[in-house]
From TrEMBL:
Top-level lineage group: Bacteria
Sorted UniProt keywords: DNA-binding, Transcription, Transcription regulation
InterPro entries listed in its UniProt record: DNA-bd_HTH_TetR-type_CS (IPR023772), Homeodomain-like_sf (IPR009057), HTH-type_TetR-like_transc_reg (IPR050109), HTH_TetR (IPR001647)
GO molecular function ontology, one term from the record: transcription cis-regulatory region binding
DNA-binding region ranges: 33-52
The organism's taxonomic lineage, starting at the top: Bacteria, Pseudomonadati, Pseudomonadota, Alphaproteobacteria, Rhodospirillales
One Pfam family matching this protein: TetR_N
Keyword DNA-binding tagged: yes
Residues covered by the HTH tetR-type domain: 10-70
Protein name (record): Transcriptional regulator, TetR family
Length: 188
C-alpha cells in the first residue's frame, strides 16, 4: 500500500466517523443504518465495511478511541498540578474545552457511554477512575464515588444547558464558577 493510498483510507475512515457521529445524534443509534452512513459519506456500504466490521464495532471503536484519549488528557492535566482545587479546575477546563471544541463528538460520547463503558477494557484509562482517584486522595472528600458522580453531573448538566441554549456558551466561560460549585459539592 502506498502512502497516498493509506492517507486516502484514513481520510475516508475519518469521514465515516464524522458522518456516523452526526447521524447517531440526529436519528439515534437504532435509527441510523449502515446505508444511511454510507450515503452521507458518498461511499458504498462495502467501502464502509472495509473500515468497520459492523455498526456496533464502529460505535465501540469511536467511543473507545475518544473516551480513552480524553481520559488520558484528564490524567495528564491533573498530574501537572498539586491540590484538589487546582486539579478540579484543570479537569473542568479540559472538560469545557472539549465540549466547546466538538459538541457533536461530546454528545455522541454521552449518548453511547452507558453501553460502551461496560465494554471498556479495565486496563484502559477511564475518566471516572481518574476523577475518583483524586477524590480518594483528598481528606475533605468523605464519599469519593458520590463526589465523582457529583462532579460529572454538574459538568454534564451545564454542558446540556449550553447545548439547548438555556445557558449562553461557550461553556469554558464558566470554568471558575463550575470549579467552585464542584469543590463545594465534593467537600460537603
Amino acid at each position: 500500500m502506498t502512502q497516498a493510498t493509506a492517507k486516502r483510507g484514513q481520510a475516508t475512515k475519518e469521514k465515516i466517523e464524522r458522518a456516523s457521529i452526526a447521524l447517531f445524534l440526529e436519528k439515534g443509534v437504532n435509527g441510523t443504518s449502515v446505508r444511511d452512513i454510507a450515503e452521507a459519506c458518498g461511499i458504498s456500504e462495502g467501502t464502509l465495511y472495509r473500515h468497520f466490521h459492523s455498526k456496533d464495532a464502529m460505535i465501540r471503536e469511536i467511543f473507545t478511541e475518544h473516551y480513552v484519549s480524553f481520559s488520558e488528557k484528564l490524567a495528564e492535566a491533573t498530574a501537572a498540578v498539586a491540590g484538589l482545587e487546582a486539579q478540579v479546575e484543570r479537569m473542568v477546563g479540559l472538560f469545557c474545552g472539549f465540549y466547546d471544541e466538538d459538541p457533536i463528538l461530546f454528545g455522541f460520547l454521552l449518548m453511547v457511554q452507558h453501553r460502551q463503558l461496560e465494554r471498556l477494557p479495565s486496563n484502559l484509562p477511564n475518566a471516572i477512575d481518574v476523577i475518583h482517584e483524586l477524590m480518594v486522595k483528598d481528606g475533605r472528600v468523605h464519599e469519593p464515588m458520590l463526589a465523582t458522580a457529583s462532579m460529572i453531573g454538574i459538568l454534564v448538566r451545564n454542558a446540556m444547558f449550553v447545548r439547548h441554549s438555556r445557558l449562553e456558551g461557550p461553556l469554558s466561560r464558566y470554568v471558575p464558577q463550575l470549579s467552585r460549585q464542584i469543590m463545594g459539592a465534593v467537600t460537603a
